[in-house]
Amino acid sequence: MEKLNSNLEKKIAVFISGRGSNLNSLIKHSKLKKSKYRIKLVISNKAHAKGLNYARRNKIKNYIIEKKLISFEKDALKLISKFKIDIICLAGFMRILTPNFIKKAKIPIINIHPSLLPKLKGLNTHERAIAGKHDYSGCTVHYVNEKLDSGKIILQKKIKILKSDTVEILSKKILKLEHKAYSEALSKII
Ligand code: GRF
Fold this sequence. Notes:
Oligomer: single chain
Largest sheet: 7 strands, mixed
Helix content: 25-40%
Number of strands: 7
Radius of gyration: 16 Å
Shape: globular
Strand order of the largest sheet: 3-2-1-4-5-6-7
Bound molecules: 5-O-phosphono-beta-D-ribofuranosylamine
């Protein structure tokens, strides 16, 4: 059933490349009465991304664009405009968008990253947090700019790294935090 305030809700596009657990949590939160956004579009750059199933199950328009970056961006921009998207959320999207895309999209693009930025930009954050004997780790939701994992921070969630934490345990704990953080960050900026 459509919510009464559906025309006031911000229209969100989520870009994914894989598992899609953050997409799933965004979809769940978007269904709550208090939600100020709705997931209108999912784009995957991988045909076999498991996360596409969350879009299909929830009848959200979804597109696979398995192309080189420039062509990917061209197609994605057309969809963003067709669906009148207000905000793009990157959720496990494994490409680095070009400055041209960021400029042409003309809407906020945000990302979730599994570390306390500016610490541990890039990949394998949990391995590096444990190997570097960091006391804390967590996740960050931030605006996307032309530099990797460097845009303005919207929200962070932090946990203490325990001596008993393995990479697997820590990544599970932080993923749980991510699922809260993404929708909270959206509510904060809408
Ligand atoms: C998450 O840890 C996210 O922070 C990172 O990639 C992972 C994606 O997981 N950018 P999922 O596809 O949302 O399950």
